[in-house]
């Protein structure tokens, strides 16, 4: 097709070690006295949003932040448990910026942009310094220095942590930095606001329309740049480890206004979640994968074995990970562990009342190390498990199953984190840039903070100064704002007016089942085609039969949900389409047709060593698949193997 | 799940259309509740039923549903986050209840937290308190190497205990005086225990306490209901630390 | 400067600290008063002479003024705090239940026990300090026979019961107030706070029993 564009990632020239330094020197600067004349909108106040808002305000920009929760501190970054990676090499175990870079590129299955990953590894150390200075209570050694642990199968201990609440502590650090600016009157924080439209004037992002979810009012905000820090779209699957309000709508509005959406099919499925227990279930709870350090994964050897776990003798148990991957055993990467669990359950060897789970057994570890040692390591996780399932994991094996956890795909951004809409930037999980096809444990927190604290402050200035926006002020009286407001208002009115007979959640659940069954851990051409056609049907049904109670004014949670589900119903289709077109397996995208003899993901580097960046045409027309070629000059392409 | 375990419950829920109108307790009966459902899933099921009937579903705050975001609230039978110790409402499960139980569900109440609708409240006051001083005034840039600041392990642990506050406001809700001392003291303590927070310790404690008073919270009477209902088990020893630090700051203040 | 002093003095934290400190001072007063009372067991002469020495000491006015101001501050602040606390939650709960691990009966009834003690205090002053005047002469010195006033007063079982009731209220009040004062001024320690809480209970029992024993003793003395 001649329409296909080749996107330029705007990667600076030079050796990979020097790219970011050179670029920082070459970028244009905004005069200090002019910074206060620029207004920046930050949508979302998670790690990326809060850190960006704080830093930009410190530099002198006027910043407005928006979040859907009642406080910026509630963003879902807060739920990350494990830790944050950095190449400090404090434990003296051979880590370096280069090794973190190398591991991240390899872990991403060679589908990330090398230069971005290198920059991420470079600034990772600054993140730790910054957070420590803010008073983030990282775990410490007796001598008072910072403590590290090995995480997610990494060969070095580079993960910094604050008990099992690292995400919470880093977010509260970024939040407090942002609130310090709020206190000074330099950041204006708007809570319980949902961004419902991106406003584009003269081809540049110049503002947003929000809906105040308390009053139902639509509000117009103009700015010189818009930063989308709105997280991922894992909730397309209905059940995921994401928070209930996590959604893809802000990114989706940007997509429909011209920002390309990259690699939507890359979905990370976390292997150690508490399995689903009933149809009424609203979300899945993740348990830190550190559990796999001591737990042994197994299923009964016989199919449909309904005996209780403790009644199944040792010789009738299948420790499938240990057998298949003798060197890594239970510590294989997330995607491998997850896919194998699904395979076992598909074979009819799943356990529990639903048959959709595998055991994670601590009996041997308890025998070996003693119950107290296990309690010290995992006490809080065991407690959480027992609270949810009413089973005591010290006595019976845990039941676990994979769940959607993180989306590597997102808005396409160049090296400067700018989307294909000038002035619209995407940070954190909302963009696609650093994790390739699979994200390593403890890297999400690193990326969110790297983007917000250390990348955007430079690249945004370069954009603002380069475009001479100071002489092109736009305010909310521009007709584009009224048009966008009318457009979004009409959409909400339409949703309220359908008055069908099915609840919003029932559509979301239906979509979730289609996504999980067909665009889940193992995808086939057939399943993806089925998904596309089924999603189209659900979408048509939604716009005919959804029932949204209440009115447009005041708090109407059903209306908020309906708006988000309407977007998921389009986004899900794009995910399936991207998965269908990517005729290879890599990281979080596994196509049954493309696997090695050992059932590992088989990449097709000749054809797919690129980013797919989808361009919106119209809801009912197929989007255009543009590409950005990826080149690996520093880390040689190789097949992952965890045998 | 065998169906004989399913429960029928009588719910008495606070319904209030908006901030301006008066609310009232409304009775609902709901059946077929599995003991494995979480408390919020039980409310989801009620809402699904209300939507089918064409009535307005019950509005309540919730988000992560894993006990860390601090969004969920609810007074359940007169207890903040329900009967289970160190548990948020979203982590409370219906197996705590029996078939035929009556459950009264109300919003967290305090002058500083107006009810927005039904069970949703406005906790902006907490953000205002943090903005008044709950931070270390360090700009993003190039602070010294993280290991240049040594923190005794014991202090790091105590700081982490305090820092685990999720800002849910159960402390205010359960305090008979609607005092916010546990929330404020948790942040003051976290930063007071770390060398990073020392520089501004006096200013911080003064500003946060004065802001708290200004927002209309009550006074602490050392009952420790806050500690007992805190989903993260934050200790009132933090309140003592705040009291001490405030006194010192006020006495030695130059202004 | 003055305005900022006022700002800190009227802050919730300092108000509680003043409550705590005045409360502790009043605890001190309770002990000294109790010791004085115990002299009654030694007979009228010892007690009356002690009382006489006390009231004829020129420093008594200063001491009484100090004590009165401590009382007034404690009571006035209590009223202010109670009103503020009440205002902090204008809409009450439909149902409110204690966790069972925080509030105690003593802690949740502080304003009520305080009020009982206030009423008692007023009546106590009227009954004794400003009560029936009898005189006695020892060694040529005429002085007030306060011993008789007390014994007479406690001839009524109702008076005895009321007195004991108030002393129980006082005990309950101090059993929370005593350790709570330390918490308010910022004293907290893993070991010693527990100890203080125990000490508060012991103190409460000593005060209640100590003060209640006297009316019973007087009543049993009969109308001699």
From TrEMBL, chain C:
Keywords: Membrane, Transmembrane, Transmembrane helix. GO terms for cellular component: membrane. It comes from the Bacteria. This is Cytochrome B subunit. Gene3D superfamilies: Fumarate reductase/succinate dehydrogenase, transmembrane subunit (1.20.1300.10). The keyword Glycosyltransferase does not apply. It comes from Halobacteriovorax marinus. The chain crosses the membrane at residues 21-42, 62-83, 104-126, 160-182, 194-214.
